[in-house]
Amino acid sequence: MGATAPLLVFGVGNPARGDDALGPLFIERLGEALSSEVAGGGLELLTDYQLQIEHALDLTGRSRVVFVDASTRAAPPFEFLPVAAQADNAFTTHALSPGAVLATHEKLGGAAPESWVLAIRGERFELGDPLTARAKAHLDAALEFFVADARGLLHETAGRRLEVEGTVQGVGFRPWIYRLATGLGLSGEVYNTASGVTIEAFGGVQALDALVSAIQREAPAAARILALRATPIPLREASGFRIRSSVNSGQPSLTLPPDLATCDACLADVHDRASRYHGYALTSCMECGPRFAIASSLPYDRET
Fold it and tell me: What is the dihedral of CA 53, 57, 58, 64, to 10 degrees?
């Protein structure tokens, strides 16, 4: 029996259930992309329909483990997040969460290896559904990101300023950027300006590239990207990623989207007796509701 590969990548999912095939497909394509690393014993690839107690034994002797799964909660195209041993709170819909597998491994007397979850955004999971076009694009982005990571390219870090122009205020763009950047392990900040939204992000070069790609392809539905400029900036210490107050300088040159009808999610809140918005006729969110009619000035901030 050969030595245990230090890096284990474990794909989870059912290939017969639409986008739930993302985990197994990722493993298949990763094996093709990193065939020399697999043959050399540095990387082992496993896949199964769901995580179970027995899989805790597969963690023995590893220095790093990555669980790959489809997710409806991940910000598109994917999130790459560290995971620790913990009681099963079911990060995925499978039998055990990655954290629970790690906890089981520790109970068996083994120290948990460095562990991550690569959650690829999926849309449809019905039996017999094909892989959706959006999921295919998310798979491509996740594979490109991870191959670079596995080859050590992500140790190269950089800073980048992204200036986004168009309809990017009043549509939930900053919270979306916050979630996306956090999921990619980037630090920095995002804020409104008189011309749109500016992002200053710091981290791995491939993660920064993934951020740019997601802005170009996966922006919130109500957003309209007219221009995206990327400029290298010096690295600086930043604790996490945050949404900061707007920089209100210069003549505004941006547009707000029109007022929209209340979306289905807000209507559900209005009719839900357990919701704080039950019966509240003016319920709205960044995906719908009033924007232009209530704004007194730009940039679009709570105080205006």
Answer: 100
The reply to whether omega before 77 is within 30° of 0 (cis) is yes
- Which H or E element spans position 103? helix 98-107
Max CA pair span of the chain: 71
Catalytic annotation, pick one of 160, 174, 273, 276: 174
273 is catalytic: no
Local confidence pLDDT in tens for the 304 residues of the chain: 456 788 899 999 999 999 999 999 999 999 999 888 888 778 899 999 999 989 999 998 888 899 999 999 998 999 998 888 886 655 443 478 999 999 988 888 777 888 999 999 999 999 989 999 999 999 999 999 898 777 764 456 789 999 999 888 888 899 999 988 988 888 999 999 888 899 999 988 778 888 888 888 888 878 889 899 999 999 887 788 999 887 776 666 666 777 778 888 889 999 999 999 999 988 887 777 777 677 766 676 666 6
Q: String of b and e for 9-26 (b: at least 16 CB within 10 Å)?
A: bbbbbbeebbbbbbbbbb
Residue 244 among the catalytic residues: no
Catalytic pick among 62, 121, 192, 291: 192
Residue 106: C-alpha distances to residues 111, 139, 184 (Å)? 6, 31, 27
Q: In whole angstroms, what is the distance from residue 70 CA to residue 287 CA?
A: 24
Token pair of 127 as six digits: 């039996």
